[in-house]
Hints:
Layout: E1 3-5, E2 8-11, E3 14-15, E4 18-21, E5 24-28, E6 50-57, E7 60-65, E8 72-78, E9 83-92, E10 97-106, E11 111-121, E12 126-133, E13 138-146, E14 154-163, H1 174-178
Antiparallel strand pairs: 1-2, 2-3, 4-5, 6-7, 7-14, 8-13, 9-12, 9-14, 10-11, 10-13
Amino acid sequence: xxxxxxxxxxxxxxxxxxxxxxxxxxxxxxxxxxxxxxxxxxxxxxxxxxxxxxxxxxxxxxxxxxxxxxxxxxxxxxxxxxxxxxxxxxxxxxxxxxxxxxxxxxxxxxxxxxxxxxxxxxxxxxxxxxxxxxxxxxxxxxxxxxxxxxxxxxxxxxxxxxxxxxxxxxxxxxxxxxx
Length: 179
């Protein structure tokens, strides 16, 4: 039997990748680490473009970004044909507008966006998500960011990247529990 710790499924001291109930995915392992408190800047891409706030949402530290582009995310290794879903709690400090969830494939020769999902945001928290199927083996950098035609300050919490085409509720990475 698996146990739930901080919303993460653990069985025999090892992380469970996914849990299904009546054929529906209800849990996916968070591949991003340090998503609860953002205490390790070294694991985050573009961390210096964001500000860690003292605010919490659902018990999670809120990050604030007011620069164009420079989305907050991490780079993970992927295989061609795998599908990934990025999700986050997000809102604007004030106002309404569009932001994008981007998926970028990176290697020593290219830095190519392989998917983008536009999300409408307001000043009310919501869970947003986007899904992509990887086109080549290699690193993937998924993130949410403000675009150049948007002057709203973007607030995010509870970032999650998981395998599969279904966004499941936020959970911290098993590594953050087991270590």
